[in-house]
Write a structure and sequence with these properties.
Number of domains: 1
CATH superfamily: TT1751-like domain
CATH topology: TATA-Binding Protein
Number of strands: 6
CATH architecture: 2-Layer Sandwich
Strand content: 25-35%
Strand order of the largest sheet: 1-2-6-5-4-3
Helix content: 40-55%
Number of helices: 5
Structural class: alpha+beta
Length: about 140
């Protein structure tokens, strides 16, 4: 079930191991027109830089090019708030994984530009569908 785990994000917890949840998330993003521009393996970075072990945790920088283009046309500096971050991390139960997305309406409201609002709402609907597909409830 989708939930707002924070004021700025929406998430779901799925009964899938981490690698399967990552694969399903990538596929669901693709079906909504998003590509993954960046990928940060937080666990690997913490291991390499700080010699700290951490649960599997990825930050995916997702971008829907037509929507990004519309936003950039409305406000050139909106790129400071792009791409949309989607995180996937291992839950405390190893058979479960959390998938969450930044709420673009909350994030892009920082611009104060009314022309951005409908774009942000479109992106939110798409990311909600992504999370629903990852849950396996669509």
């Amino acid at each position: 079930m989708l939930q707002h785990s924070t004021r700025y994000g929406m998430s779901t917890t799925v009964s899938l191991p981490f690698d399967q949840a990552v694969a399903r998330t990538r596929e669901a993003l693709g079906s909504e027109g998003f590509g993954v521009l960046t990928e940060i393996d937080v666990a690997a970075t913490l291991r390499k830089k700080l010699d700290i072990e951490f649960r599997p945790y990825l930050i995916l920088g997702a971008c829907n090019p037509p929507l990004a283009h519309r936003a950039l046309q409305a406000e050139l500096d909106i790129g400071l708030l792009l791409p949309c971050n989607v995180i996937v991390y291992a839950a405390d139960d190893p058979a479960r994984t959390v998938v969450a997305a930044l709420d673009p309406v909350e994030a892009l409201s920082l611009s104060g530009n009314d022309a951005i609002q409908p774009i942000a709402e479109d992106v939110r609907r798409r990311l909600q569908r992504v999370l629903t597909v990852v849950e396996g409830t669509s």
